[in-house]
Specification:
There is one protein chain. With 338 residues, this protein is of the alpha+beta class. It contains ten helices and 16 strands. The strands form five sheets. An eight-stranded antiparallel sheet has the order 2-1-4-5-8-9-3-10, with helices on both faces. Strands 6-7 form a two-stranded antiparallel sheet. It has a two-stranded antiparallel sheet with strand order 11-12. A hairpin with an 8-residue loop joins strand 8 and strand 9. The radius of gyration is 26 Å and the shape is elongated.
Amino acid sequence: MKILFQRIYKFNLDTNRAEEQVVPADAKDFNDYIFELIEDVARDKGNKKFNFPKEVTATKTILAGLNDGKKDTVAVSFAERLIKIEIDVQNKIDHLDQEVQKGIMLQALVDMGNYTQYYIIKAEHFDFINEKDNKRTTGLPIKRKIFKSFYCTVPADGKFKNAYVNDNRASITTYWWKTFLELEPEFTDDYNTERAFTMIESKVLNKFKESHKSDYAYLRNATVAYFRANDEFVMEEYVKKTFEKYVPEDDGLNMKAISSKLKALPENNSFDNRFNIKKEKVRKRFIKRVELSPQLDLILKENIDWGKTIVPVRDNKGAKCLQIRTDEGFDYFEKAAK
């Protein structure tokens, strides 16, 4: 990876201007910092794939300048476009006592070997007091924090197709992907929700349904819990919370291999790594019927607390039983027994 061109802008909200920050070529620490920011964005598994629309847009028109050798014009145009949009957004949310995230804007054209990519990154930048002279100054945090990002491959024919976008907020801010970048999601949230749940169940969970029944029951229940409790699905987060920390009942169940299979699902099965969960699309899928005997089924309608609700036990003769905590069920069967 080699940076062919880069520009840094700081947004001055007092003057409503995007001010270029000149970086000396010998500023090694700063240039290393920028290189690492770009690496972070390129490697982030939370990136969401978008498409450029077929029609002409301001974003596509600006990007076309990269093939015409107008890199500075491209950078200035994007900086001026973003500050204008963010000022408008800030005016709309002022009454909510909220603020648009403040930071620097990095733009870079990067040689990736066989192709080039263009990056737009908004990263943390803040004021602090310098301990040496006790004066107010500005700087970048050693621990890098990226607010928002975008990158796309720059095609030789000028026909931009796909882009990858990210945001450190709970969901990708609409003004970033839609208003500023003018992109279209490759897949809808409805499609993603149904597809992700289906692929997780059919390609991963069902593979050990019969061979590791208790682990399957727990992990499917945990998957249902994740879809119910969260407004946004992020594959890395889902795998980390649900699978990587889970200790299986059966040591023969390879959790590392399962986690790897899950992470590969979006790319191999056409859905996004990250999307807003549409619960109504999978609510019926949450219902699980478990055969207890030829005469008796147990229907699970919600994710449950296994330790408090259903516990497998053995009676004093060693027979396998289920102990279910239920007031309604107890009352019903107590009356039936009488």
